Amino acid sequence: MGAEHLTYYPMIISGGTRVDYYTPTERNVLNSIALLEQAQRSLNEDLTDLAPSNEAVVETVADDRQALSRRVFVVHGHDEGAREAIARFLQKLGFEPVILHEQANRGRTVIEKIEGNRDVGFAVVLLTPDDQGCVKGGAPEPRARQNVLLELGYFLGYLGRDKVCALKRGQVEIPSDFAGVVWTQMNDEGWKQALSRELQDAGFEIDWNKVMRG
Q1: More confident residue, 75 or 103
Q2: Residue 163: helix, strand or coil by DSSP?
Q3: Number of domains the chain is built from
Q4: Side-chain half-sphere of 128: how many Cα atoms within 13 Å?
Q5: pLDDT of 161-185, one tens digit each?
Q6: 198: which of 22, 161, 173, 207 lies 20 to 30 Å off by Cα?
């Protein structure tokens, strides 16, 4: 009997006897309720089976880490020597450095070129003393170029702080919003080990033999 079967029995009076139709109708209603409750339990069990297990979530996270893009965006100013040193080192470790001016323009603005090449797993930002600036009435101090600071903020927001490494070369004023964040000096060979550690902590596999060979 289906849950929708709620037929009312007609009242028939024969020989002065009243036929009871209430009881069988009540029985039908109770049967329908029982069937609907059983269907609800079955549906809940099916939904439970479809829910991802904790193991599945862990496997998904592991797959995401393995699928990290080895393309690394290199943000730089006018120091071409430092830029090329970073690019060559990344290539040695099996990464693909993405340098904006080497990418096709295709009629795009600078920010459109950045957005078109942001399919990267990491960003290295090179802060070099290319410009000078100061507060009103103050003494000019070495600063990184404005495009470098803009792109630093862009990738901090897009990738997250754990996937952005700032390398500082020379005396450079650090933006106030970035103050307190650890950056790496690029005045000696130690920057290679420091950058490699940042890449490894971000989930990338690093061949430390290649790092030590520099």
Answers
A1: 75
A2: helix
A3: 2
A4: 14
A5: 899 999 988 887 776 666 556 677 8
A6: 173
